[in-house]
Amino acid sequence: MHRLISRLAINKPTINSLMKIKTRSQSSSPVKTPNKNFSSAAAAEPFLNGGTSNYVEEMYNAWLEDPKSVHASWDAFFRNAAAGAAPGTAYQPPPSLAPPASNTLPLSSLVPSGAAGFPVAGGNLTEKIIDDHLAVQAIIRSYQSRGHHISKLDPLDISDASSSGGKELVYRNYMLEEHDMDRVFKLPATTFIGGKEKALPLKEILKRLEDAYCRSIGVEFMFINSLEQCNWIRQKMEPPGITNMDAETKRLILGRLTRASGLEAFLAKKWSSEKRFGLEGCEILIPAMKQLIDRSTEYGVESIIMGMPHRGRLNVLANVCRKPLEQIFSQFAALETADEGSGDVKYHLGTYIERLNRMTNKNIRLAVVANPSHLEAVDPVVQGKTRAEQFYRGDNEGKKVMSILLHGDAAFCGQGIVFETFHLSDLPDYTTHGTVHIVVNNQIGFTTDPRHSRSSPYCTDVARVVNAPIFHVNADDPEAVIYVCNVAAEWRATFHKDVVIDLVCYRRNGHNEIDEPMFTQPLMYRKIKQTKPCLDKYSAKLITEGVVSQEEVKDVKEKYERICEESYQKAAHATQIKYKDWLDSPWSGFFEGKDPLKMNPTGIHEETLRHIGKRFSSPPPNAAEFEIHKGLERILKARMDMVENRTVDWALGEAMAFGSLLKEGIHVRLSGQDVERGTFSHRHHVLHHQTVDKAKYTPLCNLYPDQAPYTVSNSSLSEFGVLGFELGYSMTNPNALVCWEAQFGDFNNTAQCIIDQFISSGQAKWVRQSGLVLLLPHGMEGMGPEHSSARLERFLQMSSDDADDVHTSFSSNFDVEQLHDINWIVANCSTPANYYHILRRQIALPFRKPLIIMTPKSLLRHPEARSSFDEMVTGTTFQRVIAEPNEGRNYRKLIFCSGKVYYDLRKARADRGLENEIGIARLEQISPFPYDAVQAETSKYPSAQIMWAQEEHKNNGAWTYVQPRFNNLLHGDIKYAGRATAASPATGSKHQHLKEVAQLLDDAFA
């Protein structure tokens, strides 16, 4: 008896605990009296019908403010408790309700007449009856809140769900005895265990609570701050018999489970010594995903983008996406690749499939995004890709496109990118309107016990920050898993919010198939060896139930084995591996019919420049009603003056690049921290009404009536997550300019995983192109080590061109050939016009490459960092090298530099009167190295000494990249002017900074 009724976690609400609120309530701002009627005995009904804690607290707060606002019985109750009455003695019935000596309260209108446990009509309610009903309600709430702690979740039955004393939290004594088990209690409105019944005996209440919350499913949801959503989950979990399934559904589950197990067995038989990161121990993942997809398509979903780690990937590709088995099997053969690039191991590759969903008879598009071994790094990429597909489909509510993310338990709780991705889930310009997360919970990391790998009770606790319900389920109970998947799909379709399915399972082999797990987990793996596979358990169960026969089970297994064998024979005839077969983001029609080396022009008509400039420089059309900041009025006027003078600064040049692309039907998206205004208050793409909240005007969205959409979004304070998101966004449509801007260039270091493993190497590994633009404010301004360098040297080191591969002759389209062959483009522009051209060139190219731009800070407003319309109109183009105007001078020294330092060098040269002796050329595109343009410039001055000048330290910046290339091209030794080597990117002393700049200039002009 006590064992059943003591699985509780909420202490009985007592007035003593409420008294503790009194001081806080009185010392804080007054609490408004709730809009409730406390003047009659009927007001006590909610006290018994649920919402106990909130109801009493509201009443207590009302009493603090005005004792007359509550019924006289409650007034006496609160007064007695405040005076120190012992627990259980504070209640004092008023004369109007009962004789003074009886201490009872009529409650005939509140309880079913004659029910066991209740007084008959006209009877009296004792204080014990009140206490007992409160205890029952606390029991119900306890199961709802903490029943998951004692659910039977572990298939190995060697641990409970809570590793931090969950049972100690659950066991409480509510003073209900064995003889109370048959008493009937009225059910509160906060539970659905009764179905249509309004009252049940205590033993039945406990049984139904056990069935709902303490068997194979443990659900966490009571932390959700929406009563509607909590009640929705209660309705799905509490009614009796909800997980019952018909025979046809059970056969379907068995068939899918058989295929999942059969593939793993076939791979293990054919390639016993190969790593494949199989799914043994969680084969139910495949039926679960298929059910989730089936149910989601019923709700209207047409496209699903998935991200997952390597465990089970081959099985998901084969049995969920239905990728041809021969393509999977051929990956195990040592074949040559038919594509350029390095490729990747088979369990990192993605795919894209369009097929008919036979269960719903609807077409479905499935994509699995390729990802590296940094397991959760793919999460934001999937979300960005999903958001982009929703955007281009006009799916503003996420009804047609959704994402599914698979996780391992150790990675889910251990990697910060999981939180960063969750944190994007409800942001207006980043939400995907609900993601279904499935955790393959091995209850172990590589070799690390959960007790050593996380501080929270569950690996899924990070999901609580976004109010996502969490369904823990025993992976060896297939029917419970399938039911949870149905609920998760319906939750996502109903509320368009994230939901987590925690498949508590085990890993039958080690981390991979050649790893020995007994080294570190001997007890767990001894138990695993004694545990029958899920398929064996479930088939035996269905045979016992008479749903299938032993022969049927055998036939299904043998049929799938024949399918695998036939595909194996086909794979044996393959001669090459085609990584294009594994592409997760095909761009249909983009490459067809194009000259792969022909680039469209980037200059445009002057009237277009003027139109965009005027619109960008004008206040909102309803300026008389839309009040903008006075400082912005001056900025807009200055911009308009520049347009009239045919001149642009950095912000205006950027706006003209964006605006002209929008005019051409190219969607532009700019994302990052504070990009709407710009970190340095230079951009101002969004104008805010100064007296009306949320009233905004975006000039670039109002250039032309038929323009493409422009999205500019201040992001969360995340680099890793947001850069991954924008990368995924850029993968969806090649005809879009997607830009991510770091608040300061060196902030990209926290996104290094995305840069290293996706952006720099994505095309080589996965044949996946991206035109993503990274805008990285860069420059030594004396602002210290963390606000100076975007680590230009890192990007150059990862460029895939060879310093020894020097060309002696150059074709007419050599520049495009270089871009075609490189993995990305690295530039440090010094003029607004060149910035304008390189942005437009991203779309003009017949292919897509990531673009890394070191953008300026001081040059945003530098009076000499201006460009004329003449440098931007039709016939002009991006200048990889900006040459010194040649006026017949024969320089003794030619200095090459890049970016902001050019303006420092030019001023110092003028101050020294060396204009006729020393020339300065700007290397605007650093990688790929523009050999032809550099050679053309140096050939003008055959006797000049060639020097490289940079503001970064010698072991930073472009020096180590350009030095061997200059030397190999010129067959000489290029000199260096700049700071010495250092561990820190910059000094934190303004005095030292100026001293270093002076030394740099002295060295350059010596």
Question: Low-confidence runs (pLDDT<50, min 5 residues)?
Answer: 1-53, 95-123, 161-171
What is the strand content? 5-15%
- CATH class bucket of the largest domain: Alpha Beta
Individual helix count: 34
Report mean pLDDT, rounded to a whole number.
86
Describe the global form. globular
Written overview of the protein:
There is one protein chain. With 1006 residues, the protein is an alpha/beta fold. The chain has four domains: 1-245, no CATH class; 277-574, 3-Layer(aba) Sandwich (Rossmann fold), CATH 3.40.50.970; 606-778 and 828-871, Rossmann fold (3-Layer(aba) Sandwich); 887-1004, 3-Layer(aba) Sandwich (Rossmann fold). The protein is 38% helix and 13% strand. It has 34 helices and 30 strands. The strands form eight sheets. An eight-stranded mixed beta sheet has the order 5-12-13-11-10-6-9-8, sandwiched between helices. Strands 19-16-20-21-23-22-28 form a seven-stranded mixed beta sheet, sandwiched between helices. The chain is globular.
Tell me briefly what this model is.
This protein has 1006 residues and is of the alpha/beta class. The chain is built from 34 helices and 30 strands.
Question: Could you outline the blueprint of secondary structure elements for this entry?
Answer:
Blueprint (H helix, E strand, L loop, with lengths): L1 H4 L9 H13 L17 H4 L3 H14 L6 H11 L22 E2 L17 E2 L1 H20 L19 H5 L13 E3 L12 E3 H12 L3 E4 L6 H11 L9 H24 L14 H14 L4 E5 L5 H8 L4 H6 L5 E2 L13 E7 L4 E7 L9 H16 L7 E8 H6 L1 H8 L11 E7 L8 H4 L16 E5 L3 H18 L3 E6 L17 H8 L4 H12 L4 H22 L4 E2 L28 H11 L13 H15 L2 E2 L1 H14 L3 E6 L14 E2 L7 E2 L12 E5 L5 H13 L3 E6 L10 H8 L2 H5 L6 E5 L14 H6 L16 H8 L3 E3 L4 H13 L6 E5 L11 E2 L12 E2 L10 E5 L3 H12 L5 E6 L1 E3 L3 H8 L6 E9 L5 H12 L4 E5 L10 H15 L2
Parallel strand pairs: 6-9, 6-10, 7-14, 10-11, 11-13, 12-13, 16-19, 16-20, 20-21, 21-23, 22-23, 26-27, 26-29, 29-30
Antiparallel strand pairs: 1-2, 3-4, 5-12, 8-9, 15-24, 17-18, 22-28, 25-27
